[in-house]
Amino acid sequence: MRIREAFSPLIDLVFPPRCPLCGDMIATQTGLCADCWSELALPGTPACASCGRPFAHQVAEGSCCAPCLKDPPRHDGIASATLYNAASRKLVLALKHGNRIGLAPLLAQLMLARLPFLDEHWLVVPVPLHRWRLWQRGYNQSSELAKGLARPRGARLLPEGLIRTKSTPSLGGLGAVARKRTLSGAIRVNPRMTATFKGAQVVLVDDVMTSGATTEACVSALKKAGAKRVVIACFARVLDEALSAT
């Protein structure tokens, strides 16, 4: 960190810092301009005590949303830095498909604000990519985010804690039953690390949470291995009803 700080003025001189969303000049290499910061949609309160889904009106503390009451989730909470909109989508796509790995610390910093409890007693595990997709992309964007969460808080990072045993197609357009069938048996705990998860507290990291089918498969695998708590952390969460209310 000291080396980075020492060379920061030189880096800024050679590569003037610009906002990764709009390209305008900014003060530091890691950040957004004021206008683009304002375009990010942050989850509001009050929210579901179980999944963090924002309510459109005031409710009693500890209330749960209708989906959680109808089908109680296996996870122990969802911490989302932003709601999925045009601004967060551009950041995610730049990280995921634009080889902008340098964005990961910025996105992770926003996620950490939603994880005040994360410390050295927790394990941090990314949602896994299938090896073929990993070879094609060259990196797992969720793993890059997980690094940015674990290191500042002293948590233990397990980049290979979960493995994807089969390549699955896009889940877009599929119903809940079809999504579950597609992911059946696709994700499991790394056999070499099974004992590590017994009684553990785990933060499961993903870049975007849409239907929740993938994270649900990961949570099931971790709970089956004996994890005590599994909290899902994502940079952006698709909640159109909450977005329309902002």
From TrEMBL:
Which Pfam families does this entry report, sorted A to Z? DZR_2, Pribosyltran
List the coiled-coil residues.
Answer: none
* CDD domains found in the cross-reference section: PRTases_typeI
| InterPro entries reported in the protein's UniProt record | ComF/GntX_DNA_util-trans (IPR051910), DZR_2 (IPR044005), PRTase-like (IPR029057), PRTase_dom (IPR000836)
Q: Which Gene3D superfamilies match?
A: 3.40.50.2020
**Start and end of every Phosphoribosyltransferase domain?**
187-238
Q: Which residues form the Double zinc ribbon domain?
A: 10-69
Task: Return the similarity comment.
Answer: Belongs to the ComF/GntX family.
Q: What is this protein called?
A: ComF family protein
Name the source organism: Novosphingobium decolorationis
